[in-house]
Amino acid sequence: MNATNLNALEVKAKNLTVNGSKVWHAGNDGTGSGLDADLLDGYHAGYKNGDLALYINLPKITDLISQGLLRSDYETVGYPTEDFLIALCKWAINNYTDETSHVLLQGEITPAVSGWCVLNLYANDGKDNTTGLPKYCSGQVNLINKSSILFGSYNGTWYYKTLVDTSNLEDTLAYWYENNENASSTTCLTGGNRNVIESLRSKFKRCIAKPYGDDAALISYLNETDSNKWPDGTSATYETVRKESLMVHFPKYYHKTIERSPGIWRTYISEQQIDNDYIEEPELLLGTFEGIISDENGGALTSTGSSISTASKTIAQFVAAAKVNGSMYGIGDYRSHATIARMFCAYYKTTNISTSNSAIPCSGGTKRYNYGWTGGTKALGNRDGKAAVNNDTGYYSTNFLGLEDCYYSKWEFVQGINILKGKYVVYDGGSFPDKDVAELEAAGATNIRVVGYEPNPAATEAYNGWTKAVAQGKYGDVVPTAHGGSETTYYSDYSWFNPTGNRIFLRSGRSDTGSRCGVFVATVNNASSLSGTTVGARLAFYGKIVVVDSDTFKKMQA
């Protein structure tokens, strides 16, 4: 006993008992002592035996990008999309491959949102060598906005589903814009989740495409910032003789249009079908450039960006040239035309693309319809912007959605829409000019519907003007239905309309008409026999799309 400090008791013995029971102290406590809670049941607590979840700091966006698991521009998205969760699962199996059973990971999700992520990873089963995904995992993201995301991989096959409180559905999973046809402004009111349109916009990607059997196309994505290169920076080549084309992969998306009050139309856009009123727009391929018909590949229509685009052909001749590539090829259709207009309004919050605007990098193009080569925008990759026209000094091509000169230069023939005495008939399945509903059904067309003007047998005079209203309705149709605007009001585009006889639909506008060009511009003034130096077409594909990496594609080019 220490006599100088009556409040201290010092015992030298290693073991001390009181009434036969061991006294624990710092000298005999610790791991393996038999007292710690981690051995109360004979097992260590933690993730290694799969009995308890491991709280971790889930990887940041920059981490996933640096590891090659996410595209380089994902930081602009800002919330956990499907792409992010796929990358998260790949990261998990790459970092927990040494476990002998399943691992339960949990933590706050990044990008920073108000929510929580749990991932059950069957680490001992490894990963699928083709997809890079775990063979087996299941996860859930719970968000404070009452929505949940279920995701995972079963035998390497990915699954993904969003569960949302319907009271907050569209604010969470959709982005919207409004066309107010009661007001002259070209500005579109917008709302909802901006991240939705950012994510969707990033999925419109340039690629090299080639026929893959009769009903499929093989594609491989090009460098995001330079279409002359593959993603790894090496030079990309494609040959007309092999029927290879530079095209844009349009992703699948959904949209719904409602009339909030007379003349005020709101269009919702989402990557998911939120309810039964949402219309699905299927994926497709659309030529990056105005098409070229070449004798060296059997007269196939291609998208090469290497010469003046082809003109002086009828719509039937362009369609026939497109089908030299395969039965599921054609030219740009009405649905792709509507998508271009829809995406521009949503992304840039305006209807006016033709007037040069520093805030809109793809506005105000000047390429002439009969001069200069296509392909000036190759170095822009998927970025919106302008570039000098090849072989026509002082003029500029533009890039929007990966499409060069998609709202001026030449008029473009459009399949999937007929005009019969003022009646617009929209359909899928090809090009069948001059056919009415019954004839379209007999020809094998699908999704046939009538939009826009009702037929007026008494009408005999064609009329033109600045578009003030478009059809809208539940499908968000963009065919002009009323004039009375101007180049700086309403839809800021011009339209020509002939209510007599059978007519075809031309989009884009020719460049010598100046500001009358645009994403809503249309002429319904010509018969299907039309051909001329101011009219061309854009190659399209409507079948099965097979995506491969650049190494695989190059092997199949040989």
Task: Characterise the protein shown here.
- The longest helix has 15 residues, at 334-348.
- Strands 24, 25, 26, 27, 28, 29, 30, 31, 32 and 33 form a ten-stranded mixed β-sheet that branches.
- The chain is of the alpha+beta class and 558 residues long.
Keywords:
558 residues, alpha+beta, seven-stranded mixed β-sheet, 8 helices, 35 strands, globular
Write the layout of secondary structure elements.
Layout: E1 17-18, E2 21-22, E3 54-55, H1 61-66, H2 82-95, E4 102-107, E5 115-122, E6 136-143, E7 148-154, E8 157-163, H3 169-173, E9 174-180, E10 189-192, H4 194-201, E11 205-211, E12 216-221, E13 245-250, E14 253-261, E15 264-270, E16 279-281, E17 284-287, E18 292-293, E19 301-302, H5 315-322, E20 329-331, H6 334-348, E21 385-388, E22 396-400, E23 403-404, E24 411-413, E25 417-420, E26 423-428, H7 437-443, E27 446-451, E28 463-472, E29 477-483, E30 494-497, E31 502-507, E32 522-526, E33 535-536, E34 539-541, E35 544-547, H8 550-557
Parallel strand pairs: 3-4, 12-35, 24-33, 30-32
Antiparallel strand pairs: 1-2, 4-5, 5-6, 6-7, 7-8, 9-10, 9-15, 11-12, 11-13, 13-17, 14-15, 14-16, 17-34, 18-19, 20-34, 21-22, 22-23, 24-31, 25-26, 25-31, 26-27, 28-29, 28-30, 31-32
Low-confidence stretches: 36-51
What radius of gyration results from the CA coordinates?
A: 30 Å
Strand content: 25-35%
Overall SS class: alpha+beta
Q: Assign a percent range to the helix content.
A: 10-25%
The tally of helices reads 8
Average pLDDT level: 87
Separation of termini?
A: 92 Å
